[in-house]
Automatic annotation (TrEMBL):
Signal peptide: none annotated. InterPro entries: UPF0250_YbeD-like, YbeD-like_sf. Pfam families: DUF493. It comes from the Bacteria. Belongs to the UPF0250 family. One of its GO terms (cellular component) is cytosol. This is UPF0250 protein BA177_12630.
């Protein structure tokens, strides 16, 4: 019996990872670094940002070529554990 959890996704696949934090260069660098630790280098074209209405927060969406559910789980665990990341979706 496999320990791997079943997934609704078929891997490999393109997968958008969205996170929100305070609008700062540090947050954007941290978000990219965490994702790249698990997914390898990410091109600038794979990153979309959107500021909040008041400009204090920013959402970052990084689309990766996901290889497995375990990879995605590891990314979300690391994002959620970081103080600069307020929400990871």
């Amino acid at each position: 019996m496999s320990d791997e959890k079943p997934s609704l996704l078929e891997f490999p696949c393109e997968f958008p990872i969205k996170m929100m934090g305070r609008d700062s260069a540090e947050f954007q660098t941290t978000a990219r670094r965490i994702v790249e630790q698990h997914a390898g280098p990410v091109s600038d074209e794979a990153i979309r940002t959107s500021p909040s209405r008041n400009g204090r927060f920013i959402s970052i969406t990084i689309t990766i070529d996901a290889e497995s559910q375990a990879q995605l789980d590891a990314i979300y665990i690391d994002l959620s554990a970081h103080d600069d990341v307020l929400v990871a979706l």
